[in-house]
Amino acid sequence: MEGRPDKFGSPYRLLSAAVVPRPIAWVSSRGSRGENLAPFSFFNVAAIDPPVLMVAPVGVGRERKDTPENVLESEAFVVNVVTGDLVEAMNETAASLDAGESEFERAGVTAVEATAVDAPRVEEAHVALECTLAESMEMGGSTLLFGEVVHAHVDDDLLVEGHKLDVTKLDAVGRLAGGYYASTRDRYHLERPP
To answer: What backbone torsions phi and psi does residue 89 show, to the nearest 5 degrees?
Structure first.
């Protein structure tokens, strides 16, 4: 079968099932709507110098939800890396809550102040990347948020040589499609050719 992306149910269904596994940005933010914690799997590294992450929440204009509204207002957010021990809590924060309800409380995680930006972070997250908004743009039905990483929190037990994050120690979780996720426990190594 071949054809336009909507021939496969919808472009979303095609891309979310074909582009796998996707890292999950568990974004914490603050604005006039209050504090917010929500997961996004349309997320990745956008640049390295300066270090920039891209998160693409669905919704533009009046259809934007709390996270992009908070980020556009405060120009700050934290990407908390989702690991196996936090995946259930992350899933709880995907629920639609009434105004004033706390995703942190619903998920049973602790909000603590970020160090360099005006946003909370998840204290239990083993890696948290504090970002300032570098750029935003609307593309189709999504608001793309580009955040420059200005401060990082990494648990000491994930480090080797005192300062390098060891990918074999980070039990990160990736998003597949529907209700499916993948762990990074099944790893293998390939030497890059010269």
So the answer is: -65, -45
Task: Please give the model's pTM, rounded to 2 decimal places.
Answer: 0.94
Measured CA distances, 116 to 48, 165, 190 (Å): 19, 20, 37
Tokens of 110: 């602790």
d(CA 21, CA 87): 15
C-alpha distance from residue 159 to each of 127, 155, 163, 188 (Å): 11, 7, 6, 19
**In the structure encoding, which two tokens stand for residue 26, read together?**
């568990």
Q: At 92, which helix (H) or strand (E)?
A: helix 87-92
The CA-to-CA distance between both ends of the chain, in Å, stands at 38
The percent helix, strand, coil of the chain (3-state, each to 5) is 20, 40, 40
Take residue 140 and report the two structure tokens written for it. 């189709």
| Residue that has been written with the tokens 């993948």 in this structure | 182
* Euclidean distance between CA atoms 25 and 66, whole angstroms: 15
User: What string of pLDDT tens digits covers the 194 residues of the chain?
Assistant: 899 998 898 888 898 889 889 999 999 999 998 999 999 999 999 999 999 999 999 999 999 999 999 999 999 999 999 999 999 999 999 998 887 789 999 999 999 999 999 999 999 999 999 999 999 999 999 999 999 999 999 999 999 998 999 999 999 999 999 999 999 888 888 999 99
